[in-house]
């Protein structure tokens, strides 16, 4: 029921193409992130799924059902937005209970006090007021806000308000939960704890969830799979590990994690390894390529730093000469900026009290294993 299929969807606003023939297959029960920079089409994709926008061409399926012509309120999607969209004059309980009204009754009568409308609802839904109350309280318990049921939402913190919005969306028992930048109004610490809350509720309920973010760390830490979007296109879909270790383009390598991206020409093969040359370096890679010119991707944590005088077996690993420009102590790691030719490479090493920190201006040897040199 909860799978979502997007087939060749294009969305134009006048001359502007916001989505350019995108296709996605989101599995039932999956936590799926749409990741990309501002303006790449994430929100437009969500709005098309929810039914707030109609695709210019292409189809969207929720479960086996094509959504063309089906209005937003009949798509069985729960929504959580960046702005919590709560009623400030209503308490937490009523804010959550309000979603029942929208879905089941399609009337605003629920805005009044619960006891009166619980009776009305119970008649129309065949549920007792107690059933309805129990369901709302159950949802509040899920988001750990049971004790706040009587509080006005205007008296809650941002994180608590976002949890009310989540409880409200979940109460509808939607087939799909759509979350558009739900954490971006929260401070860093709260974002971390809300990530865990959302992820564990999602896993508990097994609800298909599509989550929009421009924050790669958020997508990587929460999602089963991620679609990276750029300029209205889906550029790669994969698990966080797949995207990190095999980015399809330099854009993804740069967007998903930190990368060093170097331009190089291919200079033949040596013992089954591809040799590439660029400004200030020669590298051998276990990646094959059929191109003459490549982008070389090296992750900062895959580089080791040694004193320039240290002996390294150059048959086993790549060695590059460099000069330390800056060393930043970040607690458990030291981040170096190292000049190599015209490039400044970022290198993250585990801090060791024995080795200390290489000072600015120090000549160093950088080593990178052959399989850590990606060629795109
Ligand atoms: P952000 O992270 O900034 O929210 P986004 O990836 O969600 O960005 P969208 O909001 O989907 O991007 O917008 C995609 C493109 O479509 C943008 O260039 C935007 O200006 C344009 N766009 C979106 N909605 C409309 C609209 N109603 N009318 C005209 N252009 C629009």
From TrEMBL:
The keyword Nucleotide-binding applies. Keywords: ATP-binding, Nucleotide-binding, Transport. Gene3D superfamilies: 2.40.50.100, P-loop containing nucleotide triphosphate hydrolases. Residues 4-256 form the ABC transporter domain. Transmembrane segments: none annotated. InterPro entries: AAA+_ATPase (IPR003593), ABC_SmlMolc_Importer (IPR050093), ABC_transporter-like_ATP-bd (IPR003439), ABC_transporter-like_CS (IPR017871), Mo/tungstate-bd_C_term_dom (IPR008995), P-loop_NTPase (IPR027417), Transp-assoc_OB_typ2 (IPR013611). Signal peptide: none annotated. The keyword ATP-binding applies. PANTHER family: SPERMIDINE/PUTRESCINE IMPORT ATP-BINDING PROTEIN POTA, SPERMIDINE_PUTRESCINE IMPORT ATP-BINDING PROTEIN POTA. This is ABC-type Fe3+/spermidine/putrescine transport system ATPase subunit. It comes from Siminovitchia thermophila.
